[in-house]
Automatic annotation (TrEMBL):
Protein name: Oxidoreductase
Biological classification of the source: Bacteria, Bacillati, Bacillota, Bacilli, Lactobacillales
GO molecular function: FMN binding; oxidoreductase activity
Organism: Liquorilactobacillus capillatus DSM 19910
Source organism superkingdom: Bacteria
GO cellular component terms attached to this protein's record: cytosol
């Protein structure tokens, strides 16, 4: 049974990113163990904490370490990833030499209300994952635009074609990840 961690880059209530993540998770194998990793409660990373980390850092690092693969869904904030997601990447990759992300297969999905569907956030995140030593699934590329036709007021994906595409992507990711375990 593979363990999949899900990191949702938006920390707002009813986020569209969470709906995208849920639709991807729906395509994972039935026996997959899925854990949504909470990034909202992480204090802002500060290297001064490396010697004596806050409890939230320690718990988060342990949760990341326990996963076999990671699904990232990021909104696009000012042509980049959210501050909360960047902070989570930093917290679990530090102190230097203790990168909890290393070697874990990753899937990247982005979403935005912009016409480019978060493509820049997607690639900013991919750039960080290269440095963090995370083999990342290349295809399909998951750039999800938002509209009233895709999601309801709670952020859940309601468009059947989009739900199928995301679930199929989750299944493809499980196949990709299995090759690397």
């Amino acid at each position: 049974m593979a363990k999949y961690g899900v990191v949702v880059g938006s920390i707002r209530k009813n986020s569209f990113s969470k709906g995208v993540a849920d639709a991807i998770v729906a395509g994972l194998p039935a026996d997959a163990k899925v854990t949504y990793l909470d990034i909202a409660s992480l204090p802002l990373y500060n290297q001064d904490y490396d010697a004596d980390s806050p409890t939230e850092y320690t718990v988060f690092r342990q949760e990341v370490a326990a996963q076999d693969a990671i699904i990232f869904v990021t909104p696009e904030h000012n042509r980049s990833i959210s501050a909360a997601l960047k902070n989570a990447l930093d917290v679990a990759s530090r102190p230097w030499g203790q990168n909890m992300w290393a070697g874990k297969p990753a899937l990247v999905a982005s979403q935005s209300i912009s016409g480019i569907s978060g493509v820049l956030a997607n690639h900013v995140l991919r750039q960080s994952l290269v440095f963090l030593d995370m083999p990342t699934m290349q295809q399909p590329e998951l750039y999800i635009g938002s509209s009233n036709k895709l999601a309801d007021d709670h952020g859940s994906i309601i468009n059947e074609g989009t739900k199928k595409f995301l679930a199929d992507s989750g299944y493809k990711f499980s196949e990709f990840a299995q090759k690397l375990f």
